[in-house]
Design brief:
This protein has 65 residues and is mostly helical. It has a domain of 31 residues. The protein contains 2 helices and no strands. The longest helix has 30 residues. It is elongated, with a radius of gyration of 26 Å. Keywords: Membrane, Transmembrane, Transmembrane helix.
């Protein structure tokens, strides 16, 4: 009974360590990734800042977004 508990604890500990170092590796990989760079290729601007707030608010209720 105690031997089985020790085996389960060791397996749990090994899985936890593998998971922890896997997360650290992913973090170090994506830490160098620049999310806010300008896109490459034929990008299209989605947000139109010239549209006034009242018009956008009316569209919000009209189309039930």
């Amino acid at each position: 009974m105690i031997f089985d508990s020790i085996k389960v604890f060791i397996i749990f500990l090994a899985c936890t360590i593998v998971f922890y170092f896997g997360l650290r590796a992913m973090h170090s990989e994506y830490e160098q990734f620049h999310r806010y760079d300008h896109p490459d290729g034929p990008a299209v601007k989605v947000f139109n800042s010239e549209e006034d707030f009242l018009n956008r608010f009316q569209l919000f209720f009209r189309f039930e977004e």
